[in-house]
Amino acid sequence: MGAKHRGSIHDFPGFDPNQDAEALYTAMKGFGSDKEAILDIITSRSNRQRQEICQSYKSLYGKDLIADLKYELTGKFERLIVGLMRPPAYCDAKEIKDAISGIGTDEKCLIEILASRTNEQMHQLVAAYKDAYERDLEADIIGDTSGHFQKMLVVLLQGTREEDDVVSEDLVQQDVQDLYEAGELKWGTDEAQFIYILGNRSKQHLRLVFDEYLKTTGKPIEASIRGELSGDFEKLMLAVVKCIRSTPEYFAERLFKSMKGLGTRDNTLIRIMVSRSELDMLDIREIFRTKYEKSLYSMIKNDTSGEYKKSLLKLCGGDDDAAGQFFPEAAQVAYQMWELSAVARVELKGTVRPANDFNPDADAKALRKAMKGLGTDEDTIIDIITHRSNAQRQQIRQTFKSHFGRDLMTDLKSEISGDLARLILGLMMPPAHYDAKQLKKAMEGAGTDEKALIEILATRTNAEIRAINEAYKEDYHKSLEDALSSDTSGHFRRILISLATVSEFMGLRSEIADTPSGDKTSLETRFMTILCTRSYPHLRRVFQEFIKMTNYDVEHTIKKEMSGDVRDAFVAIVQSVKNKPLFFADKLYKSMKGAGTDEKTLTRIMVSRSEIDLLNIRREFIEKYDKSLHQAIEGDTSGDFLKALLALCGGED
Known about the structure:
Elements: H1 17-28, H2 35-42, H3 47-61, H4 65-72, H5 75-85, H6 88-100, H7 107-116, H8 119-133, H9 137-144, H10 147-157, H11 169-182, H12 191-200, H13 203-217, H14 221-228, H15 231-259, H16 266-276, H17 281-292, H18 296-303, H19 306-316, H20 328-343, H21 360-371, H22 378-386, H23 390-404, H24 408-415, H25 418-428, H26 431-443, H27 450-457, H28 462-476, H29 480-487, H30 490-500, H31 520-531, H32 536-550, H33 554-561, H34 564-592, H35 599-609, H36 614-625, H37 629-636, H38 639-649
Main location: cytoplasm
GO molecular function: calcium ion binding; calcium-dependent phospholipid binding; phosphatidylserine binding
Protein name: Annexin
């Protein structure tokens, strides 16, 4: 960004410190205080100007302004206003002093401050701590922490990170090798190497190290840190990596977590809003809106109250969701994401490929032997079926019938059961017939599995949809369209039928944005007409134009304006157009998240994507969730079902 100002707070034009000091004195004079006047002045001045106000206040009234503010204000509002009145380094010093004082240590506060500050900010912090408390910060941190966590904090505290933008490719390769040997290749972990490299190398250098580390090991550096380190040391190193990658994104994530769920972590919220208001609040806002599909302003507004809320909103500087608000940074990021999606040519790769030296005769005999007699050899069944392509499995079925006069599917059904049976039998079916069966199951019995209907119909190609229609008709003697018509209703039914009917138009129009807001029926009809019929390349361009015209990503608008199954279907289409492997990675993560496992979704995706793009899905999974799909499956399933899933997964990233 260079010298470009990215804070939300600037020097106030026409600033008069004496006038502000008098106004603050008047606001605190007499019974009660004019909190509105206090917050209006203090949140509208830069920190440099606030220091001048403090000086003028003392000169005019012989009193300490911060002491008076502490006396007049209370609670969270007081902490916020007093925090703004301190010079940044002294504010950080106070936060760290509070974090290490008394019983227990606020490690999260230490991590946040020491992982994110520049060399200059660190030097100022050490000096401010010495001035304010007549103590040595390094000595106090050593006295309150221990182990590798302590060592890394001390390294960061030195403020000696290299700042040279000229990067040596040889040194990058050496650091990658050293980190790999210190962690993945070593019995135990050489923490000193992690501390030295992550604590001293320049940001530009480390970004290249992280890129090369992923290429060399197949894992992001975060995954190795999670696997090799633990406790507060692990959290500190992950925070350092996040700040190296993007300090504003680190703070956007911290802000979101401070307000997510029940209760608000006000100390974190205050500390970040105060410390970043003049540095990179606009960048944080931009990333926040893009990442969480809501503005920082709106989340603060819904999560806080009173003068405290008003002050935070002033520091935030603007609502990026407000009607008519033009905030180009966030819109540009969304636009660029669609641009990348439009030009990217990603080679899709499955994890299951045709077996070399395939012998259907030998496989059929091995499967018959595995199921013959007392007991069943599940390992052999899993090994053969998960390591053959679907075309090869069909040859095995035919050979099995020719040799033994028996139906392989029927024999498998009688020999295996539960989740393993659903997975193995799914793999034995031709893809279109498998999808047709999943759609049939989603519509039969009491209730409808709308999520399964959406997942299949929103993500299949034209050729796949045609094949599914033919398979459905062949297997169930009824058209898919008739089945959908009888089991769903309203706009949702129309969307599904439109998706199930192959049709593509290629003209470039941005007609989505022309729909009047508030007309929900018209809006849903217009979205359906476009999202369900246009080609992927066409839709990517339309979505870019949509951002230009409205300043919103289309997914944000869908979530805001629609609800229920209609919303879910449209969101699935948009996410599939943007990045289909990521869509499935998200579905897999959710199927294994929390208490219990959604085995049906897990099985359906692993079966249907294993020969198409499961390798791409694996890459998106580890990049987004900092753990491999292999690890997630291993931690959430068991027995023969686990073995079969891991075989389909194809490897540990």
